[in-house]
Amino acid sequence: MGERFIGLMSGTSMDGVDAVLAEFEPFCQLLGHVHQPFPTELREQLMALQQPGPNEIEREALAGQALSQLYAVCVDQLLSQSATRADQVRAIGAHGQTIRHRPELGYTRQIQQPALLAERCRIDVIADFRSRDIAAGGQGAPLVPKFHQAMFAKAGENRALVNIGGISNITLLYADGRVEGCDTGPGNVLLDGWIEQERGLPFDRDGNWGASGRIDFALLSTLLAEPFLARPMPKSTGRDLFHMAWLRQQLARHPGLAANDVQATLSAFTARSIADMLRQSSSDLQALYVCGGGAWNGFLLRLLADALPGVSIADSGVLGVAPDQVEALAFAWLARCHVLRQAGNLPIVTGAAGERILGACYPGY
Ligand SMILES: Nc1ncnc2c1ncn2[C@@H]1O[C@H](COP(=O)(O)OP(=O)(O)O)[C@@H](O)[C@H]1O
Ligand SMILES: [Mg+2]
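YS: structure for the whole thing
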């Protein structure tokens, strides 16, 4: 039985799947990375499931099937790319696609068909990572901070990681070993939604469109007044709150803005909501490392640097893991935690009553 692990991540941006193959012993080694964009039809199916609608049970099942087939394609590619046999992989950590995240109601839902993935790949699949933490009274999110701590903590330095996916989440790794973390609000979700609506593009490449506009400070303060931002940790969020209807409501109070000015302001909103939460937690943060697709948005990074004077900012590549591989690697690592019967959550981050072994195993054979 091999000791390699695969992580499959498809996040709230709904851009596609990031998959990695890795070993963690004797040290972490990335052996492969694959990105598969969502085919248009699957993206539309998954997007439609974000809101209540008719015949959800069947639509969820079929979308989960299609997603698992795409996950299986990623696994096949990773294995052939790295000349690895299925029996050399101990387990796959498969996140699934979040279609609802309602910890306040005691549930979160990441759809997929883990049994189908196990049948296709003949590898143990660990899935449903979040619900046990919620059962223990936690938010079920973010789950990456324990991995960030294991991989990236450095004695003597106050450092933080921010993952700018659809939603943004931070992990604070203090010089004295303490850890904090939470979701901070939107990452790319509104930026993607607005440029798609206005220009028919999936995302604002390098932030160039946003950079061509001017930040509207009246709109920015309306956005920053969203109560979620001021809530103390633990907290998590999703498309349940930050969606286009929410944005339209805010924009209705500021009519007549040019579309690129809105994009500039949304970029500032993402940057400020991250920076404010970081500053509120740590007065002497030294270094910030950025991962997730937002790390490629140069305009966003400039705004983040403006909002965090004195903090050195780099992408996670300088720590040895490229920005688009950190989350998938985290779920490979969490699958390993499950196999070793080790806890994957940090109660201080999620608010759960205690450490818990996360996920359920669908045996591969
Ligand atoms: N070159 C780029 N310039 C600006 N934004 C980018 C670029 N590449 C990716 N992104 C953003 O990153 C998002 C994907 O980030 P990702 O970390 O995969 O998020 P998630 O985990 O939510 O799927 C895209 O939707 C897009 O907004
Ligand atoms: Mg993604």
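YS: worth flagging: Residues 11-13, 15, 165-166, 188, 191-192, 203-207, 292-294, 296-297, 327 surround adenosine-5'-diphosphate (ligand 1) (CB under 6 Å).
IM: good catch. Also The chain has a mean pLDDT of 97.
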